[in-house]
Amino acid sequence: MASARSLPYPLGFSTIHDGPGDTGDGRWNFALYSETAEHVYVCTFDENGEETRIRLPERTGHVFHGFVEGAGVGTRYGIRVDGPWEPSAGLRHNVSKLLLDPHATAIEGGYDWGQAVFGHDMNEPEQRDDSDSASATPRCIITDPGFDWGDDRAPRTLLSESLIYETHVKGFTKLHPDIPEEIRGTYAGLGHPSAIKHLTDLGVTAVELLPVQQFVQDSHLEEKGLRNYWGYNSIGFFAPHNEYVSEAGAAAGPGGQVAEFKQMVKALHEAGLEVILDVVYNHTAEGNHMGPTLSFKGIDNAAYYRLVEDDEGNYFDTTGTGNSLNVGHPAALGLIMDSLRYWVTEMHVDGFRFDLATTLTRQGGDAELHSAFLTLIQQDPVLAPVKMIAEPWDTAGYQVGGFPADWSEWNGKFRDDVRDFWNGTDAVLGTLAQRILGSPDVYESSRRSPLSSVNFITAHDGFTLHDLTSYNDKHNAANGEDNNDGESDNKSSNGGAEGPTDDEAVNERRGRKRRNLLASLLLSAGVPMLLGGDELGRTQGGNNNAYCQDDEVSWFDWANADQELLAFTRDLIALRRENPALHPAWFRQAPSSEQSDGGDPQDTVRSLRSDGEEFADEDWDNPDARSVVFVFEHPGADSFALLLNAAENGVEFQVPDAPGAEWRLAASSDPGQQVEGEVSTLIVRDGSFTLLRSAVEAG
């Protein structure tokens, strides 16, 4: 909210996008953008909680600004905005409500839910409530930007070499036996050598953290004794969430979460691991017209939120949360851009995954490829080197393949088609092949490579890999919504029994299925994303919407990790990493055998039927076709043949000629699979895969 620039401010939008500024003479310079406010107050709080209000005396354009004597690092503060109250016109100013600074870099405390934090009377929504909210709201903290980064460098891992690990700061570390108890569940815990060792031993290159920007605990969850675990309820776009700081970090000084977050990033970077943040800029925790007044709603409601063009002042919502940020307005758009640059320059993060990214492209309602949001990111020199990953949908549209060429996207089609194939669904072999090859049907026409596709089988939202193969139905009763929440169509299969079982045949079938799914993920073109804990056999007991389970349902159960599955995953990741044929940077469609020119030597994929013949067009649509061979070749490197059989019976494959030395077994979901000597045929059992390797011949 504040700036260290000298006054008066130059006219222009850029004047509103800096944090509190030290003038060097014992004063701090604050500024706040509002087109509709009449007065803006900075409210500082002493150690006894006594409030001092300072009205910002100047206004340049729509920017209120002024100096605050005696403010400095560690000062707790909030803001109050006085102005008109006319909800039907989108005006919700209420000077009785203490608001968070949109540019606050640290936030202390949480909300006490009750009438005081609502700008309106909860019984008469059109009436303003004048009760003071200061005692029920958190405080912003002025933080020290200084930190010894030493020789910290961003790993800048190529997308073609990347393997993303989606995880949760608290859940990953809370029960880890080798992390000191006092830092479990914190930024310090994730930066601990034991946590990092698991990641580097596994072979991933980046952690993608569920939201760590300051978020709000929902009142309806607290009433049920639950908590917002995932964190998709943001309110502070510059502040690391304060519940993830260790006691030692908090004791180090006000806003200790900032320094502890930076130390975590530094430690991960030292191990060669990138840090990608799952960011929620599409909406905030203030909800719809019945929601609380916490920040933006009381500063300039119509500038920060999209309102329906009617006489009711209602919110345009494509997020399912009650509101959508108004990315067509420079105030909201500038805030997002400032936040992104802050996390890159000051916090040293390496990329972002944008929750419901399609909402951010809706300037006038429709999703736009050349929206201001996408255009600003594309031309920004600070953001150009970092990874940009879209969740390419929102409640109003599905936009896989619709983002710019320098973006990657969560590929929901990969998830769905791979699940369908291994479930034995009819007529999906053709789409399965597209996914293995990097989804050229989605990206090739716009000249985008497989690296545009972030492939995943499971993510935080839905079943874990263990549960995907153990449950036909969701089991979400613990969420307190009568099992009505969460997706009902999971494309899952329990293997013959619902939930835990002692049936050895069922458990063997499930284990094979998990290995099949992991192999499909790790042996496909694109950027694989592994859900944290899938390598350990992590279960949520069939809960496919554990957003409110901040407990053993969601935390990693290290004590009962599936060590065999962990070893299998490590080996497969190493195989991918060490062999260029298994992680191409571009589409790899080999020429037909009928072509005489031999094709481009970089073309390294052939798709064959189980009888060794090439596919005719009609073969791909055969509803009974459930087997395929992919031959991956790369000049001067080992070659691989991937044999997939999703049929309920074993299939005899005609093995193609080895490009180099004779085929050897590289991996299989069938522990009994054997390959001895030169092979021309190979039986792959029901519901399993086999990967063969042909070493490059010397000379």
Chain-averaged pLDDT: 93
The CATH C-level name of the domain at 13-141 is: Mainly Beta
Which spans of ≥5 residues are poorly predicted at pLDDT below 50?
A: 1-19, 591-601
The CATH homologous superfamily of the domain at 13-141 is called Immunoglobulins
Helix content: 10-25%
**Which fold name is given in CATH as the topology of the domain at 13-141?**
Immunoglobulin-like
Oligomer state of the chains in this structure: single chain
Write up what this structure looks like.
The chain is of the alpha/beta class and 699 residues long. Among the domains are: 13-141, Immunoglobulin-like, CATH 2.60.40; 589-694, Golgi alpha-mannosidase II (Immunoglobulin-like). 20% of the residues lie in helices and 19% in strands. It has 16 helices and 30 strands.
Topology:
Layout: E1 21-22, E2 27-33, E3 39-45, E4 51-55, E5 58-60, E6 63-69, E7 76-82, E8 85-86, E9 91-92, E10 107-108, E11 139-141, E12 164-167, H1 169-173, H2 187-190, H3 193-202, E13 206-209, E14 213-215, H4 219-223, E15 234-240, H5 247-251, H6 256-270, E16 274-279, H7 296-304, H8 330-345, E17 351-354, H9 372-379, E18 387-390, E19 393-394, E20 397-398, E21 408-410, H10 412-422, H11 429-436, H12 440-443, E22 453-455, H13 465-468, H14 504-522, E23 527-531, H15 563-578, E24 605-608, H16 617-620, E25 627-632, E26 639-645, E27 651-654, E28 664-668, E29 681-684, E30 688-694
Parallel strand pairs: 12-13, 12-23, 13-16, 16-17, 17-18, 18-21, 21-22, 22-23
Antiparallel strand pairs: 1-2, 2-6, 3-4, 3-7, 5-6, 7-11, 8-9, 10-11, 14-15, 19-20, 24-25, 25-26, 26-30, 27-29, 28-30
